Amino acid sequence: MADIANTKDIKIGDNKGKVGAGNTVGVEGGVGKNASLGNTQDVFVRGTNDGKIGAENEYGIKGGLKDGDSIGNVSQVTVGQNSGSIGAGNKINIG
Question: Domain residue spans in the chain?
């Protein structure tokens, strides 16, 4: 199973930084089967999120992945209070 640049199972008190955020990933050609690229899941912030979670990532894909494609998804994120970015400002270019 392919599993590239994913962030999962994170538990923190407060977030003022980046969790699965601000990444640049380029894929050309293959990968296949149960592909999974740049997904952020199962993030639990007990307190306040003032930072970025699964946000502002850039993906450039040329002819690759397929089969179980899953690109840049953000799921199962729980925060106490949020004034930050969750899954915002992502760019996916498929050519």
Answer: 7-94
